[in-house]
Amino acid sequence: MASEAPAPLLRIVSLTKRFGGFTAVDNISIDIRPGERFGLIGPNGSGKTTLINCISGAFRTEPGTVLFRDEDITTLQPHVRTRRGIARSFQIPRPFRSMTVAENLMVALDFAAHEHVSVAERHDTMMSILTQMGLASKASAFRRVSSSIADAVPSSEGGVCVGRRLSCIDNGNSTVFVRQIPR
Fold this sequence. Notes:
The protein has helices at 48-56, 78-84, 101-112, 119-132, 143-152, and strands spanning 10-19, 22-32, 37-41, 65-68, 71-72, 86-88, 166-170, 175-179. The protein is of the alpha+beta class.
């Protein structure tokens, strides 16, 4: 007897996004199962980033439904979706200029935490990420180097979204990758 496929980690049902009279995403339905890698490829202006913005909550859908782990998250704010386990990177990194690479990464780790995580745990995680990326020696550097972290995320084999179940990476090269990151 063949085993049934696992329930989708992410399910998008009949999602549409319009900007005035322009339809950027039209009736899209997608299932992404745990462990599955899914690539979304298309030319500039084809709706890839708009779809990611709808999944992350940056844009509202009209109509359409976004389900994550069988929970309807369509109306949840982006910060709530992040705490549920959806992470997104942006094409243009904007680190805090007055903060070091380590401090910028600590802010991101604090924002993405599902529950209270001690400063020591966040620091250990931050140093682990910087070490994996070959940037540990730059932890105390300022803005110029912190862009290196954001630039490295899309090319990083495992991503740097620690503890995330879903990572959406929009790399600006007409490809958006959505992948589950193992815990």
